[in-house]
Each structure stands twice: as C-alpha cells, then as structure tokens.
C-alpha cells in the first residue's frame, strides 16, 4: 500500500490532505471533527490582532454549471472574528490531542514589524507546527493594507517574510495571491525573505453574479454588494498553472509547495502533486460535502499510486513538471486526427455543429439508409480536439496521433519571422 505520509518543510502529517485556512478551521470543534474523519492537517483560520474583525451576514455567492452546485464559490468573509486568546487556547488543546497531525496557524497583522514580533511568540507557545502568512485575501483586509495588498508587492512579501523568519523557530509558509500578472516575482520574494515553503493559490478577485431584481452584485448585503474571493472547482486550472510555474522555475524548485485551488477528488489531488505540490489544502469541497470526503480522497489516491507503482508522495511530486513547457517548445510536427466510433455514436450532431460553425469544417453530415452519420474529413482535420470535447459519449471520438517526422519547435520554424530576421542578419 502506498505511503501517503507528507513532509512539507519539516511539517509532517499522515497524509497530504490538509484543510485550508477558511471557515472549516475556525474553531476547535471543527478541526477536531476533521482530524477524527482522517484529515492529515489543517491551517487554522487566519488570526489577527485584537480587537477581532467584524464579519458580515450574507457572505457567500455561488455559481453552478450543468447541474453541479457550487462549481465556483465567492466569499466576502474576513479573517477570524473570535478573540485571539480563545483561538490560541484552542490551537494548543487540539495540537496536544492530535500530535501526529499538521497544525499550521494562518496569520495576518498590519504591515508593521512590531505587530509580527508581538504575535509570533503567542503562536509558538501553542505548539503549532508552523505559520502561514496570509498575503492573499483579496477583499476587506486588502483595503486595510493587509492580505493581497502585501502579496501584490514583491518587496513587501520579502520584507515581512524576513521579519517573521527573524522572530520564530517555526517553519514559515507564505500564501501567495493569484491576483497578480505573474506569480513568479512574489514567489522569488518569498524565497529571498527566507520562506520555508509557499502555498497557492488564494482566492481570485471576482463578482459571482448580479441580482437583476435588486440590481446589486451578489451576495447582496442590504441592497449592495462588493467583490469577493473566488474558489472551488472552477479555479483549479488557474491554480495548476501557477503551481507548475513555480515548480519549473530553476531557482524556485527548491521551495516546497502546498497546492490549493479547487481540489475536490483524488484525481485533482494527484494532478496537483504531479505539477509540483507536496501537500494539498482543501476548502470548498469540505464545505460542500463535509469532512468525510477526505476518506474518498485518501483511498482513491492510495489506489491510484499502487496501480502506477508510486510508493510515496515524493514519487509523484513534480512528475509532470519536466513536460510543462513554454508554448514555443512544443513539437509543431505533432498531428492528430479525429476518429468517430460509429458503434458508440448516438447521432446527436454536436461534433458536426461545433466543427462546421466554429472550427474547420472537417466533419461531414451524411444520410445512410435514412440514418444520420458523421464522418471525419481527414484532409481538413487539424486535430484541434473540439469535437472530442463537445461529444457527450465517452470515448466515442478519439484523437489519434499520426506518425511524427522529427521535432520542429517554433524558434526553428520557417514561418517564424524572428528566425528569418536572424537568417538575414547572418
């Protein structure tokens, strides 16, 4: 059986599945129940200075897709609204009772060195395994010059990380905001400041929708709305890209990554590991399905690893990174052709419509003995994959790779104007 034990910068847990800093980790009652259900770790909901912040009623907005509830979740909730002393006492008790679980404390205080110096010894006294610096919250706290207001400025990221590292013996995880042009500068800044690991992504600035009766962004608070933080399955592609960008950067590859963003199944977890994550943080899936969802994730990941011959998490981490390359390194000689399995085809015509109206007119609509039949016109097929994605029948349309005549990337392609300029200059 695969060994799922996890070690992120010296923070150990029996499996890589941690609850992210969010409402599910707001109090001891929740975290205890989560650990009893099998979660390997938890990042306590972000703590700040007293007096605690004030949270609003009507905090969430959600968007569904094709019958799936909460494909995307938007929240305007702030950090913990409970007194600091109560949170710290509960953290100490939970860590005492679950010594084998990873318990990390998320922190957000004003961008003043004295504030960080004051809170860190209090957290250290709880016996927590590490701290996570919340440089990502995109709403409410950013207007107070915290959260994403820090994470969007690499110089601030490095400065605060350096302050924290000078004041604590605990491993320091820097939580990065996705609300930047490039994730690499703040990641480099975290490393320069001495971070032991990074976690990403935090939520994405968003307006989930507009109530057309009250004419206000959702969720509506007494007739008005604001932007919030977007999370859930819909943000997974953004998160995977950013995790992979850090993992493939030669200078950042030494920085362990805790992957966050839309992880709902064991397959999502495996994809994040393959793109460079060491531990995994989950929020929306737990809020949607409850803490016991972790059992499916544990068993699914373990079974998949056994099937593939991966003995431990480290065998999976970063496995896909060497194949995550810039566009101009892809082989332009590679070509696929669509093939329709006529036995599986139900004659819906979605492939034909997609190809005829928006793609390359490479599917013919035929009538054979009164029945509709769709066939690929191979001479016109560019192998774009659109037909396979719109087809509602699994494995009905297969993209078949054609023989490859060597490797030709864009820098060497005859159509590349830069190449022609270089040849002329030569």
Describe this structure as you would to a colleague.
31% of the residues lie in helices and 21% in strands. It is α/β, with parallel strands linked by helices. The chain contains 14 helices and 20 strands. The strands form six sheets. Strands 3-4-7-8-9-10-15-16 form an eight-stranded parallel barrel, surrounded by seven helices. Strands 5-6-14-11 form a four-stranded antiparallel beta sheet, with no helix packed on it. It has a two-stranded antiparallel ribbon with strand order 1-2. It is globular and about 75 Å long. The N and C termini lie far apart (59 Å).
Summarize the structure.
This protein has 426 residues and is an alpha/beta fold. The chain contains 14 helices and 20 strands.
Topology (elements, then pairings):
Blueprint: E1 6-8, E2 11-13, E3 17-19, H1 28-37, E4 41-47, E5 60-65, E6 68-75, H2 84-97, E7 102-107, H3 113-124, E8 130-134, H4 148-151, H5 154-167, E9 172-175, H6 184-192, E10 197-200, E11 204-206, E12 210-211, E13 216-217, E14 228-231, H7 236-248, E15 257-260, H8 266-274, E16 279-282, H9 284-289, H10 293-308, H11 313-316, E17 336-340, H12 350-358, E18 363-368, E19 371-376, H13 386-390, E20 397-401, H14 417-425
Parallel strand pairs: 3-4, 3-16, 4-7, 7-8, 8-9, 9-10, 10-15, 15-16
Antiparallel strand pairs: 1-2, 5-6, 6-14, 11-14, 12-13, 17-20, 18-19
Helix pairs in contact: 3-5, 5-6, 8-10
